[in-house]
Specification:
Elements (H helix, E strand, L loop, with lengths): L1 H18 L5 E11 L5 E9 L2 E5 L5 E6 L4 E8 L2 E10 L2 E8 L4 E9 L2
Antiparallel strand pairs: 1-2, 1-8, 2-3, 4-5, 5-6, 6-7, 7-8
């Protein structure tokens, strides 16, 4: 069974390697609150390297996330006890999706464009 899995993984590896890094760079994200009492709108720069979220220009926020081979974006951003989760889809140099914060009881939509 393991040999079959290993063989399948090796066959799929070239496709994954070719796609790796396609979303790397800085993304300008516009965030809008549609539910709850969080700030109505804002803008942040998110940095992606090797398809992983590695930085955000919001002070004290720890980013975690990725873009997978199906162009699905998943992210979690924490500052102390506050947590914001975001998900969506990247298409070329644009992306969009929804976000929510269970700790602040709010959520909304986000759109992003690659700026470099």
């Amino acid at each position: 069974m393991r040999a079959k899995c290993l063989a399948a993984c090796l066959l799929l590896a070239p496709t994954t390697v070719l796609a790796q890094g396609a979303h790397d760079g800085h993304w300008q994200a516009d965030v809008e609150t549609t539910v709850g009492n969080c700030p109505r709108s804002g803008q942040v720069i998110v940095t992606i390297k090797n398809e992983r979220v590695v930085a955000i220009d919001a002070g004290g926020v720890e980013p975690w996330g990725y873009v997978d081979v199906t162009n699905t974006f998943m992210g979690r951003f924490t500052r102390g006890a506050e947590i914001v989760r975001a998900n969506g889809e990247a298409k070329g140099a644009t992306a969009s999706g929804s976000w929510s914060s269970n700790t602040n009881y709010c959520g909304g939509r986000w759109t992003a464009r690659k700026i470099d």
